[in-house]
């Protein structure tokens, strides 16, 4: 029998709405797991126990009163700590924002609340979302619930670990170059990076705003669809959002994959990819074939330039976005006797940011400076355009593209942290998606040495429904891939 925390969200919320299950009991079950397991996993930076319980009781009272409740009635959600929550500190896992309590909610958080969801807490991440392992957090690393010696992936490592360990049924992450998909893959859960502009970034603390999107993480595809349906749609406070009406993504689920054409990306399956990953993705493709899809191969040679282009654009935007942390307006401030403004500014930034963030600000500033702007930033932007075009070409022949999410299984804590280039290389399969602005999903597709592996499906702009439909068909055909870590 499924334990309460394993109940799919779409079922739990139905039971809460009908009064069969109390929201207080449901929320308490996750709080109890957090208390028991998070001392080791460290998925959360902040847990708002009392607030969550109060909110749950309110939902129960509304049910008793016969009031109409939202789609996430009484469902706890863990929110990445770079997404603003009114009255709950939002740290970006940085000393710079250690005590920052936002005066407003991000649009996605407002939407959760409008559907009667319960915010459970804020999850750990790489500092300012810069990283692939959740090791650069000022609060210390998150550990992979499948093996506490391994990284959970990053930068939304806390959000993925919380869902995998049953410390939240749903979570929100953000994905600038893979930060939802990478930890989803490493922790064995479903994570979706939406089309650029589908989900509002209002209240998301910016790292590289031309690349990033907030998106859902869940234990199964249907729950992932439900959370996406709640957060997607036009927002007047984010002028980059698209004028599309939010869709009920779950309605597209079901059916077979007959006539679906899926292109396996040659450049992302070759050299540098761990053999266990190649094998798992091939088996995944085989399963889709059994389900009626047609599998072909596609070559995209331009992807050789994706990683350098991504890092130049991401660091350049970061250097500009992080200029606001000056110790004057908000956040950490180094105060000292006799420090003049310029000295205070520089000491604040030296102490407030960790080494990876500083490295990126310096490199980004360099890439944007006079004389180098044309050689680096502009060139990288041109590469992004070529990648977008070459994907658009590929989508004339294929409905979806398929690649690994990560080129390797979850690595050991500390294994790569002193070698930034080795860490950046891990993003090879995920960054093309952000440069092109298209949606992609990571789906659990195998295990290697007891550690989860993920397959990545990529769709044309606004192709979220086909991603979810394909993921759901696979999930039904291969339920053994959707497993819980042996944590208790
Ligand atoms: N690992 C990539 C980076 O460090 C992606 C991070 C993200 O998506 N936020 O930039």
Question: Which helices and strands appear, and what pairs or packs with what?
Answer:
Layout: H1 9-17, H2 23-41, E1 44-47, H3 49-64, E2 76-80, H4 107-114, E3 118-123, H5 157-164, E4 170-175, H6 181-187, E5 190-193, E6 213-218, H7 221-231, E7 261-265, H8 275-290, E8 294-298, H9 306-321, H10 341-352, H11 355-368, H12 374-397, E9 400-404, H13 420-425, H14 431-436, E10 440-448, E11 451-458, H15 464-477
Parallel strand pairs: 2-3, 2-4, 7-8, 7-9
Antiparallel strand pairs: 1-3, 4-6, 5-6, 5-10, 9-11, 10-11
The protein binds glutamine (GLN).
Description:
The chain has 488 residues and is of the alpha/beta class. The protein has a domain at 4-254 and 440-481: Amidase signature (AS) enzymes. Helix content is 38%, strand content 13%. It is built from 15 helices and 11 strands. The chain has an 11-stranded mixed beta sheet with strand order 1-3-2-4-6-5-10-11-9-7-8, with helices on both faces. Helix 7 runs antiparallel to helix 15 (464-477). The radius of gyration is 21 Å and the shape is globular. Bound molecules: glutamine (GLN). The site of glutamine has 13 residues, from loops. Glutamine (GLN) is lined by residues 129-132, 155, 175-179, 207, 314, 427.
């Amino acid at each position: 029998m499924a334990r309460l925390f394993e109940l799919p969200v779409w079922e739990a919320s139905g039971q809460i709405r009908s009064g069969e299950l109390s929201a207080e009991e449901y929320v308490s079950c996750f709080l109890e797991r957090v208390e028991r397991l998070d001392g080791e996993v460290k998925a959360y930076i902040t847990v708002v126990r009392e607030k969550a319980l109060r909110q749950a009781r309110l939902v129960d009272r509304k049910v008793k009163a016969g009031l109409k409740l939202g789609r996430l009635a009484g469902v706890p959600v863990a929110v990445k700590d770079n997404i603003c929550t009114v009255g709950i500190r939002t740290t970006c896992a940085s000393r710079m924002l250690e005590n920052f309590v936002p005066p407003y909610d991000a649009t996605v958080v407002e939407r959760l609340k409008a559907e009667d969801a319960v915010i459970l807490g804020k999850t750990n991440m790489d500092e300012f979302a810069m990283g692939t392992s959740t090791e650069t957090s000022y609060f210390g690393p998150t550990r992979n619930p499948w093996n506490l010696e391994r990284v959970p992936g990053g930068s939304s490592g806390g959000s993925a670990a919380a869902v995998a360990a049953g410390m939240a049924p749903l979570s929100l992450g953000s994905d600038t170059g893979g930060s939802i998909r990478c930890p989803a893959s490493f922790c064995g859960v479903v994570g979706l990076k939406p089309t650029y502009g589908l989900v509002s970034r209002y209240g998301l603390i910016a790292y590289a705003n031309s690349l990033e999107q907030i998106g859902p993480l869940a234990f199964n595809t249907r729950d992932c669809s439900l959370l996406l349906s709640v957060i997607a749609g036009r927002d007047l406070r984010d002028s980059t959002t698209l004028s599309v009406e939010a869709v009920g993504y779950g309605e597209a689920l079901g059916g077979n994959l007959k006539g679906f054409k899926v292109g396996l990306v040659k450049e992302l399956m070759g050299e540098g990819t761990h053999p266990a990953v190649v094998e798992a993705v091939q088996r995944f493709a085989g399963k889709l074939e059994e389900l009626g899809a047609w599998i072909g191969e596609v070559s995209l040679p331009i992807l050789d330039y994706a990683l350098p282009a991504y890092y130049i654009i991401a660091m350049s935007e970061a250097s500009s976005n992080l200029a606001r942390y000056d110790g004057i307006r908000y956040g950490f401030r180094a105060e000292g006797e006799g420090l003049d403004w310029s000295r205070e500014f520089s000491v604040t930034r030296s102490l407030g940011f960790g080494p990876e963030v500083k490295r990126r600000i310096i490199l980004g500033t360099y890439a944007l400076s006079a004389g180098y702007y044309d050689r680096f930033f502009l060139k990288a932007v041109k590469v992004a355009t070529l990648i977008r075009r070459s994907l658009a070409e590929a989508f004339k022949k294929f409905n979806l593209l398929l690649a690994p999410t990560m080129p390797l299984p979850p690595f050991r804590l500390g294994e790569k942290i002193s070698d930034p280039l080795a860490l950046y290389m891990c993003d090879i399969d995920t960054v093309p998606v952000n440069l092109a602005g298209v949606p992609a999903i990571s789906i659990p597709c195998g295990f290697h040495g007891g550690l989860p592996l993920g397959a990545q499906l990529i769709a044309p702009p606004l192709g979220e429904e086909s991603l979810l439909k394909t993921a759901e068909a696979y999930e039904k055909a291969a339920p053994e891939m959707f497993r819980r870590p042996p944590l208790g």
